[in-house]
Amino acid sequence: MNPTVHIVDDDADFRDGLAWLLDSRGLPTRNWSGGDVFLQSLRPGNPMWECCVVLLDIRMEPLSGLATFEQLKAMGWPWPVLFLTGHGEMSMAVAAVKNGAWDFLEKPFQNNLLVDKVEAARQAALALQADSRERLLFQQSLAALSAREREVLDQLLQGHYNKNIAEHMGITPRTVEFHRANIFEKLRVNSAVELAHRMGRLA
Amino acid sequence: MTEPTIDFAVLDLDTRQLSVLNRRAMTWLVGMLLLVTLSIVLLALFLRTVEAQEEDRRRTADAQWLDQTVRFHLRRLEADLGVLALQVQRSEEPAPPALPGGQLWRSAQAIAWHGWLAADRQPAVAAWPLFLQSAAQHPDNAEALSAMLTTTRGLQRAAYAGPLPQAGDSRVQMLWLAVPVFERERFVGDYVAAIRFDRLLDSVIPPWFFKDHAVALDAETFPLAAAPPDKPSLYVAPVNLPGAPLRLRVDALDSRPALAPRIFFGIALACLAGMVVALYFLRRDTARRQRAESQLQTQMALRTAMERSVTLGLRAWNPDGRLLYANQTFCRMVGLAPHDILGHAEAMSYWPAGQGDEFQLLLQSASLPMAQQVGVEMQLRHSQGHLLDVLAHGAPLTLGDGRVIGWMGSVLDITERKRVERLAARRQELLEASGRLIAVGEVASTLAHELNQPLGALSSFANGLLNRMRAGSLTLEEVTPVVERMERLAEKAGRVIQRVNAFARRQEMSLQPLALNEFIARVAGQVPLPDGLELQLRLPEQPLTLPADALLLEHALHNLVLNATEWAIHGGRQPACVRISLEQDGGLAGIRVEDSGPGVPLAQRNSIFDAFASQKTGGMGMGLSICRSIIEAHHGRIEVATSADLNGAQFTVWLPLTP
């Protein structure tokens, strides 16, 4: 898995130079001449909707970097977005970061630092992607629990002991023991603590 | 153009007082008239009394005169009769004796009869001469005649009888006179004469008396000296003859009173009447004068109020330039009392030096055509020292016939207006400066962005190339287009720089000969001075001229002086001072601006000319940087040091005298 770096900049020279630089460090890149062009390619279900990193120039015509970012957020874009800022646009970049952007790169930049930041963002994208796959699996497992097992799980998450659960549900502690083992096996956890942790993180 | 007039009669509120005055005057007038009337009455009474007394006196005099005259002539007659008697006795013959020369004898038949009556014939009427007998025939007469004769004998003196009516004609009254003659103490007889009384009066009383009077024997017996009331001119004059008390009745024919007192009285009356008329006119004149006076007072009050209310300072000069008048506003403006100002022809303490002659300035401004009279802006000094900006107008004081008798000047205090104008100009300047700064910022930002793009791209290409070269994963075919691209990018950056340079140098300098003395004076005059700041100019005698762009250099010098004035007031010196001096050093002219401010710390002397380095709050840090640019563009330099005697900053601009 090697996330692509999307470079969105209306200046062809700058775009190409950046691509050439990232390429020299082995990062796959793809160039876009503007925010509007990039957004048009991002319809959900499109193969583009996969693990990647976006470099957005702030000063662009006709759609500025910030406007493009707003639209991405509205679509629920999960992947890291980095801003490229010129002189006098620092405050905009900071605001964008506070608003959920990953980071910003100030022009003129030290090239290798830039590449390092992009690389970090790529790793984050990868982690995000892995995370989302784990969550998908866990939720499938949760869905596979029977109705009775769901009830026992709820009682467990409330921190009750087996004996109490049996009393509440009107079944024998032995049966509770049985359900619990099934839940642990289906959700692939080894302890109640791990179960709670995974439920909190993924459910 | 007609002068607008004010109807002061409307304003005249003094009528009540006037009517009081009128009443008082009327009282006096009535009193005066009463007095005049009284004097007339008294005068008339007095005149009447005087006239009556005069009449009375005249009557008495006339009566006495009549009495004496009649008696005088009768005495003479007595004497004559005595003489005749003697003649008759001596001659013893009846031949008529020579008549004596008395008045009575001369007049025609005054003496009706005369004759000797011897003593023996005396008592018996029958023995009397014929005429005497016929007289005695009247019933009353015999006794009277007999008594007369008896009296002469007994008393030995002449005696009179009568007047007795003549027998046969009772209208003729006869006065009888008997003069006795004694011879050796023996009575010898009487000489008797009968005098016609009317003829007697005619002959005795002179004609001038008859002209005015009618005299007759008084038969009636009304009391003496009391004239009958119906005829006041009638009176009785007694003539006392022995034996015959006569009463003469005198009727003054022309009893007109004397004219002179009446004339005097008339004149006095006329004078009094004239006085009354004069009084009336005087009264009328006084009333008119009072009205005029009260109107004048109202006018004065109004004019004084107007004069006090105006905020315009007013002064009047006589034609020689001597101040005649200054109103309150003007005195307040300059803080002087009127007596400090008025009457002087020389320059006043309120007149700051260096503005020329005030009066000449006024004459100049007043001699302009009406349409061009916009006033002269000048300065006045308050007695406490601060200066006032004023706008002055002049106008001639012209009489009705066009004669100019002086000059009038008005002065409007525009200090506040000027201050506001200066403030507005300063604000505008700041606004423009900040506008320029914003524009400069904009340019700088654009410039940064425009350069960022090619430089960033260039850097990226170079780094990418470097990374690949280090990795050794690079073919020559790959390198060429990238390096070509880098070269194009470098060129692009170069073009941006060129464009900006061209923009910045768009305004070319135009060097023209510039006279520095006038230039410095002009620039110094344009800088707004804070209150209490002293600006000194030290310019050399001989003029210095050098080629310069006046507009740019003015901007630079203005900036330096403005800085100096702003810093000077923060120093310790009182009063704060800024000095501008000009000197020559070889081929260089040095314009030096010193101030009494805190000065420039040594550490900042090099950095103060850098852009965006400002020590002032609110300063932009562009001023000195631009100054230096301008001066360097003139091939000059600027030095900063500490002022030797003012202890503040000292900036010296050195400019070459030849290009």
Provide a short characterization of the protein structure.
The complex is a heterodimer of chains A (203) and B (659). With 203 residues, chain A is of the alpha/beta class.
Task: Describe the protein in words.
Chain A is α/β, with parallel strands linked by helices and 203 residues long. Chain A is built from 9 helices and 5 strands. In chain A, strand 3, helix 3 and strand 4 form a beta-alpha-beta unit. In chain A, helix 6 packs across helix 8 and helix 7 crosses helix 8. Chain A is elongated. Chain B is 49% helix and 22% strand. In chain B, helix 2 runs antiparallel to helix 8, helix 14 crosses helix 15 and helix 15 runs antiparallel to helix 16. Chain B is rod-shaped and about 230 Å long.
Order of strands side by side in the largest beta sheet of chain A? 2-1-3-4-5
Shape of chain A: elongated
Treating each run of at least 4 consecutive H or I residues as one helix, how many helices of chain B? 16
In percent, how much strand structure appears in the residues of chain B? Answer: 15-25%
Order of helices and strands of chain A: EHEHEHEHEHHHHH
Mean pLDDT of chain B: 80
Distance between the termini of chain A: 25 Å
Unreliable segments of 5+ consecutive residues of chain B: 221-227
Largest sheet report of chain B = 5 strands, antiparallel
Largest beta-sheet characterization of chain A: 5 strands, parallel
Catalogue the unreliable spans of chain A. Answer: none
The computed structural class of chain B is alpha+beta
Gyration radius of chain B, rounded: 70 Å
Backbone structural class of chain A: alpha/beta
Q: Using DSSP, what is the number of strands of chain B?
A: 19
Domain Histidine kinase (chain B): 446-659
EC number (chain B): 2.7.13.3
Transmembrane segments (chain B): 25-47, 263-282
Catalytic activity (chain B): ATP + protein L-histidine = ADP + protein N-phospho-L-histidine
